[in-house]
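Lab meeting tomorrow. Please check the following:
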Amino acid sequence: MQYGDATVLDSVSCDIPAGQWVSIVGPSGCGKSTLLRCVAGLTNPTTGMVQLGGEQPAFVFQDPTLLPWRSAADNIQLPLELEEQSTENRSDRILQVAKLVGLDATDINKYPRELSGGMRMRVSIARALVMKPNALLLDEPFAALDEILRQQLNQELLHIWQTQQMTVLFVTHNVTEAVYLSQRVLVLNANGTVGGDVAIDLPIDRVPAIRNTPPFLEKTAAVTRILQEGL
């Protein structure tokens, strides 16, 4: 992938089975977000191709990107409007995805300015889920949140992944977060090549206490080592 004379991604090849959670880590500027945008179809690769195999992805940006003049509920239903889907049962679907991300009927009647950063991100995720995608692409969605809220949303996102049986591609700078959430961690080098593809063979039902166990710390150390070698 090139922008002018600059190569952002180089010889990146990755096969992701349906239903798997893969996180992408790497130094700033290595092409993590560009790779995600290529998968989403928001950016066209200059060479090579992306094959989705029937997956219908939804994208969650680092910033919630909510329309300030619309309530949370109206932001959530925006994709339904753009696709001109029937208004029948629309309210039920909005409440369903709102509940899935930890929002209630009172929350979704508020405007973005009335919501905390964590609540706005929940609305953004609900908006991505409202069309029932089978793949979710997330570009550092929790980067601006404090650690306690970040861990809480990690658990909620894991629950969504497990109950909705979705494929997830998740970009983060946080190695601990990547190992905790994922079944695989794809490590990009500073030059945009793949430095490693680490299998995270930990129990599927993740609980916070696992972060202190030797297997978890070993995986975190392995990913960190590859990151350092690729700088």
Observations:
- The domain at 1-56+134-231 is CATH 3.40.50.300 (Rossmann fold).
